[in-house]
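In the current project phase, our protein records have gained a structure token line. A sample record follows, to show the layout:
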Amino acid sequence: MPDNLVSIIMPVYNAAPFLADCLKSIQQQSFSNWELIAIDDFSTDASFKVLEEASSFDRRIRIIKNTKKGIIPALSLALKNANGHFITRMDADDIMPADRLLKMVEALNAASPKTVVTGLVEYFSNTEVSSGYRTYQNWLNQNIQAENPWSNVYRECIIASPCWMLQTQELRDIGGFDSLEYPEDYDLVFQLYKREFKIKAVPEILLKWREHPARTSRNSEDYAQESFFKLKVKRFLAFEKPIENLVLWGTGVKARLTAKLLLENSTPFTWMDLHPEKYPDGIFDQVILPFREIEGMEKVKLILAVYPPKKEKLKMENYLKNLHLKEGETYWYF
């Protein structure tokens, strides 16, 4: 396995309108010791033709046709064919800033084993990027530079799917992509979290993330909100054992989705809210208790499905601190 060779793995499905720009951004990298393994995932547009033309002029670009439809099989096939010491994922509709690979390789070479390198992201579009995507972009960039990014692992996917780099063997050692569930980008993050990888953030934009109506994340049930919650609840129950007194705070949409999944899993929990009097009949046949009931409980693990403004959030977190609860250890935002 050549030193510092970077394997770029990229599933490609009907990305023809954006693929040439993506490939150009890879070919213009200041770090030139890379191979691109592009997996054509049964495209029905001109994607394969665009890849063929690019590979005819650049031998670093390898094209493989997927044998089983889907992003997880595509990523698994790419990993199987990767020769690099380092590995990174790219999506066929996005753009790599020119120094991305260089910055990531430098960061990994300077890091201890079991480190995942990521960087800042920036959404762009031919039209205006929605406020929701901008909010997520800003939150993501802030979180990966925080002291403990993992503390928010159950709130959102904390590493952008096309903006990470690992040692290839370390990815293989944790099972690669074969055992992942959709949404696979989030599940990979959970596997890194479980195995106590460190996150090292390069404080520069390393991904131009294209927003457009045809994005898979916008059109596949695998990336719908319920799919994310099914996965996060499943991983939470598996990773945060023992769970003796599980408490859920909040009664909004996400709290109710979390409660529904806990009930489907036959997981006992105590449901609390700031205003339980609004729900005299409970929700889902569950009694809603005042939040202060938590003060009389021991060995609590708390799911926070509430998102107050900054001032109220600080007040709430100070209250939890006085109860000797710690974010990322005994309470988590969902």
